[in-house]
Specification:
288 residues; Rossmann fold; 9-stranded mixed β-sheet; 11 strands; 33% helix
Amino acid sequence: MTAPSPSSNERSPLRIALILQELSPFVELTPQAAITYRFIQWLAGQGHDLRLFMPRYGLINERKFRLHEVIRLSGVHINVMDEDFPMLIKVAPLPGVKRMQMYFVDHEEFFRRKFVFVDEAKNFFSDNAARAVFYSKGVLAALRILGWIPDIIHIQGWFAATAPLVMRTFYQGEPFVEESKTILEITDGQYIQHPLGKDFIDVLSMDDVPDEMLAYIQEPKVGDLYTLGAGLSDLTLWNPHRKRGMKTYRKLIEQHAKRFEDIFQKVDPDKPEATYFSTYQQLLHPEE
C-alpha cells in the first residue's frame, strides 16, 4: 500500500473510535502499544476527531497519569451474567499528544487487581470473559451517552474483540452502530489457545445472543473471541505480534470474516499510518 499523502484529510476529518487492549505509555503488552500510539499522534496531527478507550487496569498509576472520573459517563450499570455492575469512566491526557484524552473503563471487581490477564503465578483469570464483555459494553455505553457517531470503530486485541458481538446484539439499531464501519485487528496470539471456560457461553447467553452465532464453539477459547468478532466486523486485519498457536485460528477466522486482510509485517512501526489510514480510506470509499 502507498502512504497517504499530506493532503489525505482534504475530505472532512474522520471520526474514529479506537477500542484498545493496550496503549503506550499506559500499558505495553506487545509492540502494538507503541505502534498504535504513533498512529494516534499522526491522526491527531492531521486533525481527525478521536475517542480512545482502554481498560483501567490496576497497574496503571492514576496519580502519575492524572486520571480523574467523568461524572457524566459514570454510574451506568452494566449487566454481565444477569448481575449489574456500576461502571466508572475516567480520563487522562495522552502524553505527547495535544488536546487528546484517554477514556478508561473501570470497575473495582474487574480492574483493580495489579495484573492484566494473569495473576502473579501466571494463572489466567477465571473471569476474563466477563471482564472482556464488561469492557466492551462499557465502551459502547459511553459512546451512546456521548451521542457521538464515528465513521470508523477500530478494535484491537482479544480483550476488546467482544465489541462487534455486543454492537450487533445489545446495541443493534443504535446510530453509532448502524452508521459506522467496524475493523477488528488481531494483534496478540499469546493466549489464543487458552480455555475461557463455560462461563463464556453463560456470559453471552444472558444477552440472548442467537444460538447460531455460537454453534461452532464447543470448548470456548480466547481465539473464539476473534472468530466471533471477525464474523460481525466489516473488516478483519491479521497482525499478530505473537504467532504461536495462531495457524489453526487463522483459517477459522478467515473463513468467518466478512473481509480479511493480512497486514502482518506490512505495518511500518515508525509510519503506521501508511497502512492503517489507507485501510480506512479503502473501507469508507471502496469505489475509489
